[in-house]
Every structure is written in C-alpha cells, then in structure tokens.
C-alpha cells in the first residue's frame, strides 16, 4: 500500500487550516499534521495514531499536534510559533524513517516564526535542508496545467538584484545543474533530462555587448558539463525561453535570479504551480502561495495549488 503524504499545518492563522479539508479532493492518501482545533467549524476529521490508519471516506485524517493557543484568522500568535516549527521537524522525522512517502507543507509566515520563536532560517526550504543534515538543495517551481510543462529553478533566490552578479558563481551554478539533473532522473522519471541555462544579462550578454558573465564563465561551464554527459543548452536569452516551442526543447530551466524564474511560471500557471525542493533525501512539495492573511478564515481560499502539490508529492514518492 502506498505510504501517505504528510500535510503539515503551516501557520494556523493563515489559509492552511481551511485548505486541509479541501485537499481531500486530491484523491491522494495524506494525513494532516497539526491541531484539529484550528480546522474550520464543521470539518469532518478523525484522529489517527499511525499513518496507515483508515478513516471514513470524506473525513480528514489528523495526526494530532496540539498548539498552545487557538488560531485567529489573519492574526498570527507568537505563542504558536514554536509548534509550527516542531510540526515541520516531526514531519521530516516521519519521512526520514520511512513512515511517510513525503511531505507537503502548507505555508508558514517567516516573520511570525522569527518574532515568536527566533526562527533563524529564510524559509521552509533552508530549514528542511538543515534538518536533513545541511544538504545542498535547490528550489524548483513546476507547472501542472500547461504543456509543455514549465519547470524553473532560480539559482539565486531571495537576494537583492544588486547582489546577484556576485552571488551567481560557477560553483553555485554547477551545483544547481547537478542537483536538478539528479532530481529529474530520480523524482520525475526522466532518463536523459534536458536542462536549459538562462543568461544573466539581457540577450544573454549579446557577445559581450550587454555583459561579460556569459562569455567569461557561464558558456565555458556549460560546455565542460556537456562534455561530461549533461544535456545542457545555453546560456540562452531569458526573454525567449518560455513560449511553448522553447519549452518543448528542455525539461527544466535554470535561471539566474528569482524573478527571471518565477515571473514566467506564475504567468503561465499561477494556480497550478508547485514548489519542489530538490536534493533532499525525502520528497517535499508545497503550494506556490503564502499564508494569505487577508482572506484567512473566509472559506474562499483556492485549493488548486495544494491539490497539485499533494499529487506531485505522491507521484514523486512512487518513483523513489
């Protein structure tokens, strides 16, 4: 029997609690890890003590993790911050010990965790990498509603644009290429993954007219790794990489910085985009949105992204 996915509760004052019961529409076996008192009124749920426990159809299985305080939509409580962090760590333990097929994380609020519990990580991804033994990871955003698929990896992520040329190094790009190639083989079932590399500068530098990084080291790095057997193309002008004809020529695109990667996928598949952490020893996905405090508790949150994230996690787990 397939091992279920753990759906972590995330920030209970956000939209996570109302997305959990809606996620039953995914058809994927999963267990909600969190405090059932934070779920919307009227939610049909049943507590489980083991991940394989069965519950009636249409009922949300809950692996209980009690929080100190109730959840007030839109108003994160510092008293709950440590419990949010503890849920993530507990989910990782369940995945690492083979009890869960993988993890799908509902969104957290980094400011609330830092204020309430001194959370010292930029986000979920970095904390999960730490829990896994400080392994190198990369973030992929993957579409579920467009063909050819759009899969993007920002090599630098949450940094200022002014810092990108300094932080985008040959070692970092090579690491991202290797992690992405291995994950496309292991988790997406691609025997010979094709990876496109975006240039840093407009028109990929246009032979040095608009920047020299492409000539100085990106193209030589791509050529060296291509000689080692990687199916790489680039550096390519980013503005022509994301129309359907271009996407048909690669399986994932590595981009120099955050917006270069995220603008195209959020334009093409805003609701169906999934955040995937590549390089972890366990499967981790998440919906591609935040806590949405402005609409929390109103019952109007769109569950399409979390449903897509659960399905992708389950598919990935089946390939491991």
Textual characterization of the structure:
This protein is an alpha/beta fold and 320 residues long. Helix content is 33%, strand content 17%. The protein is built from 10 helices and 12 strands. The chain is globular and about 60 Å long.
Overview features:
320 residues; alpha/beta; twelve-stranded mixed β-sheet; 12 strands; 33% helix; 17% strand
Instruction: List how many beta strands DSSP finds.
Output: 12
Tell me the series of helices and strands, N- to C-terminal: EHEEEHEHHEEHHEHEHEHEEH
Lateral arrangement of strands in the main beta sheet: 3-4-2-1-5-12-11-6-7-10-8-9
Q: What structural class do the secondary elements suggest? A: alpha/beta
SS summary, helix count:
10
Can you give the mean pLDDT? 95
Largest sheet: 12 strands, mixed
Shape: globular
Poorly predicted sequence stretches spanning 5 or more consecutive residues: none
């Amino acid at each position: 029997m397939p091992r279920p996915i753990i759906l972590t509760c995330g920030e209970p004052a956000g939209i996570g609690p109302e997305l959990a019961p809606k996620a039953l529409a995914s058809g994927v076996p999963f267990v909600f890890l969190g405090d059932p008192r934070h779920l919307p009124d009227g939610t049909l749920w049943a507590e489980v003590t083991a991940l394989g426990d069965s519950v009636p159809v249409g009922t949300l299985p809950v692996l209980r993790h009690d929080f100190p305080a109730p959840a007030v939509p839109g108003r994160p409580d510092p008293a709950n911050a440590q419990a949010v962090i503890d849920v993530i760590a507990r989910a990782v333990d369940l995945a690492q010990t083979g009890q869960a097929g993988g993890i799908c994380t509902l969104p957290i609020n980094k400011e609330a965790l830092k204020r309430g519990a001194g959370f010292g990580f930029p986000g979920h991804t970095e904390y999960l990498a730490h829990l896994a033994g400080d392994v190198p990871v990369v973030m992929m955003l993957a579409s579920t509603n467009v063909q050819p698929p759009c899969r993007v990896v920002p090599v630098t992520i949450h940094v200022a644009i002014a810092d990108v040329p300094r932080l985008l190094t040959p070692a970092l790009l090579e690491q991202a290429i290797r992690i992405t190639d291995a994950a496309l083989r292991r988790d997406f079932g691609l025997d010979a993954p094709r990876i496109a590399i975006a240039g840093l500068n407009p028109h990929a530098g246009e032979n040095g007219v608009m920047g020299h990084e492409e000539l100085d080291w990106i193209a030589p790095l791509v050529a060296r790794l291509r000689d080692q057997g990687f199916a790489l193309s680039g550096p390519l002008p980013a503005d022509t990489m994301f129309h359907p004809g271009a996407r048909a020529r690669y399986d994932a695109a590595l981009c120099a910085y955050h917006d270069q990667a995220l603008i195209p996928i959020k334009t093409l598949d805003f609701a169906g985009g999934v955040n995937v952490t590549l390089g972890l020893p366990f499967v981790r996905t998440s919906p591609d949105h935040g806590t949405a405090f402005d609409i929390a508790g109103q019952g109007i949150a769109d569950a399409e992204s979390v449903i897509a994230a659960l399905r992708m996690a389950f598919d990935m787990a089946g390939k491991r």
